[in-house]
User: What shape does this take?
Amino acid sequence: MTRLKIDIVSDVSCPWCIIGYQGLRQALDHLSADMQADIHWQPFELNPQMPSEGQEINEHITQKYGISLEQAAQNREMIKQRGLSVGYEFGNRGGGRIYNTFDAHRLLYWAETFNKQTELKLALFDLYFQQSGNPSDHQQLLSVVEQVSLDVDEAKSILESDRYEQEVRTAQRHYQNAGIQSVPAVIVNNKHLISGGQPTEVFEQALKQIVKEDS
Assistant: This one.
């Protein structure tokens, strides 16, 4: 049995990140007789300068990518269908807002101490994509913390302080300096990069090739 270390550089407001994770997870399930993975989530902020009130999503997407409202709607539909193809149902994201996610990354750093990082990450994806929630709102973050059975009082203390700020910033710089400019970025055994929200079969083939090369 081969054991893989997998770092997933991602943001909780990135739809391709949950699509990519679902594809990776399905690939690992298919290959479970031959390999197991230790998954670690690494921080990446799609919009680090986003103010606390966020920005209306259509306004943000059309400004950031220079596309029309019609193109944005087409992209959302394509993302919705890709999500369904890997078993993830996006909620109604025709409206809503884009938010800063730095505090969510601080909680994810903390959650790894308790082997709850993936559970919290998936719940944060659901908060944003299925419940149209705000991953910068402390009360909503604490509700998600409670949902995954982490200590709400400790999480509140973290959010009200600067704990893990430096650790998250350092991790962000590390991956930026390594050339990661878009997410998801799946890094296997600290050296093999699989970029983007790939289909299950692409992850499966890539993992087989990585195990072959590293054996």
